[in-house]
Amino acid sequence: MMLPKPRGPLSAAVFESMRAIPAEPVARAHPEADGPEDAAITLWALYELAYRGFDDVDDTAEWDPDLLAVRRALEVDLEARLRTRWESYTSPHEPRDDFADDFFAFIGGHDGRSLARFVQTEADEQQVLDLFRLRSVYHLKEADPTAFVVPRLPTAPKAALMELQYDEYGSGDPNRLHSHLFVSGMEAIGLRSEYGAYVDDVPVEVLEQNNAMSLLGLHRRLRGAALGHLAAFEATSSVPSRQMAQGLDRLGMAREMIDYYDEHVEADAVHEQLAVRAICGALLAVEPELRDDVYFGAFACLDLEDRLAETLLARWGVGT
Prior knowledge:
The chain has helices spanning about 10-20, 35-50, 65-85, 100-110, 115-120, 125-140, 145, 155-170, 180-190, 205-220, 225-235, 240-250, 255-285, 290-315. It is mainly alpha-helical.
């Protein structure tokens, strides 16, 4: 994968610096971002240095101090915005003593617009292809951000998270990796399947979704939020996956992409219990002080998905 197209002065300057490493030994100054897209694509590219990197960037850039300083400033801004949204959110559910019951009630009380429901009943083929291009930025990475959390956990939640991750990574079969299943689906419906192929096309909401997962996964102090994000994702995935499969079948789309969602109908029904009870519940049994972070991460997951849904439905001319 090559570096994406810059979206403003900050990303243009940072990408130029990234390509210059390690030939340029002097400290580099970078301008301010001129808007959310410029900041988001810059942070996304800086995070990608911790994943697969870029063909036109030397691997030593991952730990370049000037780039890390830019990343840190952008992270602080992203986390502040996520926390401001969380602090202004009023949950309609009544708190319960049992964490799992309380968490499921919290998830159930968050009722945003659903892209999966729209695909199930109304979307046309071009809208679905548009959605897959955007989703590919995450689905071709899938469980990788959560893998960073594993060594930061106590014994019980670590073991439970590895059980979930083992399934995400195909239970030892490279052909069953969930990200690989999505590759097969993308190829079957005639879309590019290379990692990061459509990053230049995605709106800021997609970049922010992906950046939030990397932010939570890459910082030990945010391990509770990372697992809360995971639990919210898993707890809201099984039914939407069924809706997606039904919508794709309605449109007569390729079996390989339907199979990807069918896989998640059953898997995520199990994963939601594992993520909430055996992972988050076990974490809070050992580190109860992380409870608020767990809910913060869960809210961030749901809120960011709501924002993407609103943007895409507006793009497609779908009313409220």
